[in-house]
Amino acid sequence: MKKPSIPLLIQIFTAINQTNITVGALTFENTNQSSLDDYTKNDLLYAVYWLEFNGYILRQDSSATLSKKYRISPQGKILLADILNENIRSSEDLPN
Predict the structure, then answer these.
(1) CATH number at residue 76
(2) What per-residue confidence (pLDDT) applies to 40?
(3) From which domain of life does this come (predicted)?
């Protein structure tokens, strides 16, 4: 399975930490995160689903708003710390 880029993962983790964001909000054309403008919707969706599939983010269903929000799992916090501490420098260094 192809692994997302490190800068994209950092941006997604940052967005989730700041706003408890939905996938839709990440992929809107007019996102407030100008750093996400460099990525296609496919890139964003792939990275989000890769993070979810590998247990780095968890989906929270909100029946009140009918939206699915994400939060970072304990494994995701470890991954993010490893990335920020430069223990993981490229996509090839990401765990399977």
Answers:
(1) 1.10.10.10
(2) 84
(3) Bacteria
